[in-house]
Amino acid sequence: MGKLYSFKRSLWVFHASGGSCNGCDIEIIATLTPRYDAERFGIKLVGSPRHADVLLVTGAIPRDFADKLRRIYDQMSDPKAVVVVGNCGTSGGLFYDSYNLVGPIDEIIPVDVYVPGCPPRPEAIIDGVVKAWLKIEKLEKQLEGGE
Amino acid sequence: MTPNILAYAFAFPVLGIFLGLVYKGIDRRVSARLTSRIGPPIRQPFWDVGKLLLKETVVPENAISWLFNAMPLIALASSMTLLLYIPFGVLKAPLEGYGDLIVVLYLLTLQSLAMAIGGFASGSPFSSVGAQREMVLMMSYEMPLATVIVGFALIYRSFSLTTIASTPVWSIVGPIAGLGVIMLFIALLIVTPAELAKLPFDIAEAETEIAEGMLAEYSGRNLALFYLSDAVRGFAMAALEVVLFIPFTLSSIFNLNLTGASLYTVEALWFLFKVLVVYLLAVTLVRTSFARFRIEQASRIFWVYVNIIALVGLALVWMGV
Description:
Order of helices and strands of chain A: HEHEEHEHEH
Largest sheet of chain B: none
Shape of chain A: globular
Distance between the termini of chain A: 17 Å
Oligomer: heterodimer
Largest interface: A-B, 24 and 34 residues
Number of strands of chain A: 5
CATH class of chain A: Alpha Beta
Structural class of chain A: alpha/beta
CATH topology of chain A: Rossmann fold
Radius of gyration of chain B: 20 Å
Strand content of chain B: under 5%
């Protein structure tokens, strides 16, 4: 059991919706329903970015929202991970050449996990959040290597 | 204070944190089962606290930092102290003789007050709104809570919890006063979720409307302290209800002749079971089945309906005694 074991068992997620069409957002809520029950793994949606370990971003990002997203990212306390849900945030998706958008999310904030799909299945979203463990595991190795 | 009391005073808070977190875990598990989910393991709150302690603690730039950092400590300290006043089954309360029900009432208030002050000190509009709602809610539920305590003072002619715990309330009241005590119990059960900031009265921490309200700016260690104080207070509040209303010991029901260690073990387990039942009924079942009230609805519920129940109960107790 590593130093950051409790991290893997308790990931709190904050959900920021950019220019999303609400499709991905509904699928995110679906992960909390009895059928998928993400709380089994300690995954919980929280209402404030200060509490969150994982930032879920959905949708293509319009110009107005870009610096707000940056602020949300800055407000989260370390260590943190970012998961992008849906095609729009990953690559621009349907709206890739829109003049209103500032491009994929990884040009605004550092992204750790991409969950493609339009919208992705709830299983894929849970898998994406769980993959944020990989980042924490990397951190764990750094911690152990440093001592 | 004898060394014995000091030993209790150090052991109780550790035990309180452990039990509080276990009860929180059971609460989450049962709540999940009630909505036909599997739910997190019982150990989940321990992992949550462990993780929060690992995280960075952020103090916002426009917060009053000493108030902001002091309030989680005061909240945890007040819930721990609250636990020291509660007789644990057949065990006496460690701080017995140093305070009574009035102190318990103040300690219950102090924790909510600490959260509200912490919210005001955060310098965030969400926290301020949350803190204001918490103050309004506090003003609403304090009246029925105080009525319950006055009712007990009327019956026992004393505010001492030890006196109350030593003789079950049901054995010294007549039929009319007994009806009054039942009404006081109902009032206290309705106050419980508001006191513990649980659904349907978690208006001050509404995560979907005001970004967790008072706790919006708290992170890392400070949030962990609030989490712990919430867990300890949940346990203490249920334990207080057991001491006031369900003080029957197992040996008095079944006429067991237990002595020494076996008596303490059996009675402690029985006490924990009673606390669990009250906790599940008053917190878990209610928070799973109700949606959040608006603040003015909650205020009306406490000032009008719960107050009527509590005052009629008090009047019945007064007539019966």
